[in-house]
């Protein structure tokens, strides 16, 4: 039996006409170095009042046994269950301009139906450009501005400041498929991937989220608050700089990446896809950083 995309979600409000509003998309479960996309999504949802526009049927999309939700047991009974949700929320920026955020766990099943459902929602609501965003690990130092890889569904939609190879093949994600299917349907979609120092890839790194926020603000014209992310980034950078000062090995790695970065910038502008991943002992040094930050933050995301 042919299934309709509209069967996969339920509109929680009378469908508002958002008149070209950007639809930001972040799905947990795929690569997200520095927790860049997650931190930004949480920051936006915490910074603005928002209302749920649509809720997806999570039971059809999630493999609970591979990503088990948490339950709380108190003395002699189960007290709480953290039910997963995949929702489209409506927000308004600092100037009252509406935008949408699609967030939640990446679907494990029915990707084609999910992307069709997301497109159905965008068309019903009159949404504009879809924007996906996340972090990728790269051989770059935390002491230099982070690069952002940008791509779009048509020529001229966005210009990347970082040069990419002409063609490469990578594992797919639901967000990437959404961008691809939107393009095939003639809808505008953009993807941003912030380059996160590989030795910080497993840590919560607010600077990466701040960089994504700047890119999204620039392309959409949205007025998005940055102060809380800036404060979190400053706190985290103090911890990182302390670790650099306390370890000759870590300092040597950072200085080597700085020299490589500066040489790449001087040679051909913004091509940072150089030899960073070939740096020796990077895995060992990454483990040191990740353990250090985990201990300092006790596994918690820095407050934004």
What's the gist of this structure?
The chain is α/β, with parallel strands linked by helices. The protein is built from 8 helices and 10 strands. It has one domain (5-297): PAC-like subunit (Rossmann fold, 3-Layer(aba) Sandwich), CATH 3.40.50.10900.
Mean pLDDT: 88
> Could you state the order of secondary-structure elements as H and E?
EEHEHEEEEHEEHEHHHH
Helix fraction? 25-40%
CATH superfamily label? PAC-like subunit
Q: How many β strands by DSSP?
A: 10
Principal-axes shape call: globular
The CATH topology is given as Rossmann fold
Beta-strand percentage range: 15-25%
Task: Please summarize the sheet with the most strands.
Answer: 8 strands, mixed
Give me the secondary-structure category.
Answer: alpha/beta
CATH architecture: 3-Layer(aba) Sandwich
**Separation of the first and last Cα atoms:** 46 Å
Give the class-level CATH name.
Answer: Alpha Beta
Kindly give the count of domains.
1
In DSSP terms (H or I, runs of 4 or more residues), the helix count works out at 8
Low confidence ranges: 272-281, 299-304
Radius of gyration, in Å, reads: 20 Å
Strand arrangement, largest sheet?
1-3-6-7-2-8-10-9
């Amino acid at each position: 039996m042919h299934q309709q995309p509209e069967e996969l979600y339920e509109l929680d409000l009378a469908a508002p006409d958002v008149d070209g509003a950007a639809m930001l998309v972040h799905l947990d479960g795929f690569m997200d170095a520095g927790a860049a996309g997650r931190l930004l999504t949480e920051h936006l949802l915490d910074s603005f009042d928002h209302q749920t526009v649509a809720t997806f049927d999570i039971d059809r999309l999630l493999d609970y046994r591979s990503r088990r939700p948490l339950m709380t047991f108190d003395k002699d009974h189960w007290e709480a269950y953290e039910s997963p949700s995949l929702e489209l929320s409506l927000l308004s920026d600092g100037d009252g301009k509406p935008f949408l955020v699609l967030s939640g766990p990446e679907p494990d099943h029915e990707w084609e139906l999910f992307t069709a459902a997301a497109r159905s929602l965008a068309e019903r609501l009159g949404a504009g450009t879809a924007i996906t965003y996340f972090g990728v690990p790269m051989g770059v130092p935390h002491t230099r501005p982070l690069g952002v890889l940008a791509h779009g569904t048509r020529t001229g939609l966005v210009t990347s400041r970082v040069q990419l190879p002409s063609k490469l093949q990578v594992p797919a994600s639901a967000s990437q498929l959404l961008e691809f299917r939107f393009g095939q349907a003639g809808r505008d979609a953009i993807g941003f991937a912030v380059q996160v120092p590989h030795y910080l890839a497993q840590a919560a790194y607010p600077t990466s989220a701040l960089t994504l926020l700047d890119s999204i603000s620039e392309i959409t014209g949205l007025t998005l608050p940055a102060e809380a992310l800036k404060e979190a980034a400053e706190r985290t950078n103090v911890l990182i700089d302390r670790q650099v000062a306390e370890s000759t090995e870590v300092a040597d790695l950072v200085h080597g990446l700085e020299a490589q970065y500066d040489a790449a910038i001087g040679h051909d502008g913004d091509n940072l896809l150089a030899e960073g991943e070939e740096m020796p002992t990077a895995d060992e040094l990454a483990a040191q950083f990740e353990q250090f930050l985990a201990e300092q933050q006790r596994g918690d995301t820095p407050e934004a």
